[in-house]
Amino acid sequence: MEGKGHLNPQAIGFALSAIVTQEFIGDFVLAPIGQDTKSSIADALKTSLSSFKNNRKKSAKRIVIYRSGPSEGSHSAILAFEIPLARAVIQNFSKIIKFTFIVVIKDHTGRFFKKQESENEL
């Protein structure tokens, strides 16, 4: 990979149910930082949907897309491009597949702490 993001690529990973219940197949694609990832996302979705249909002999009922790590400034691009792209790819396979698109911004400043009842309690 040449250019921007050479040493720190984006990983686009995906997983799907295999033939046996509770067994999963997964893979990932590397894309340089700053490169348009829409084609990689579309390819990952197509691969996942095709593999699921080949393994299970039926289309998936539900898909969850978990998008981790975008900046707050990229939410409008996700809403304008990535979600419609995912919807179009999914509807090419089946009009009845439902999907959930989750966008998570990593925030390492928030923490969960157990409330201490007394100073003696650890």
UniProtKB/TrEMBL annotation:
Identify the domain of life. Answer: Eukaryota
- Recorded GO MF terms: nucleic acid binding
InterPro entries given in the database record = Piwi, RNaseH-like_sf, RNaseH_sf
Against PROSITE patterns, the record matches this protein to: PIWI
Record domain Piwi: where: 49-122
Protein's UniProt name: Piwi domain-containing protein
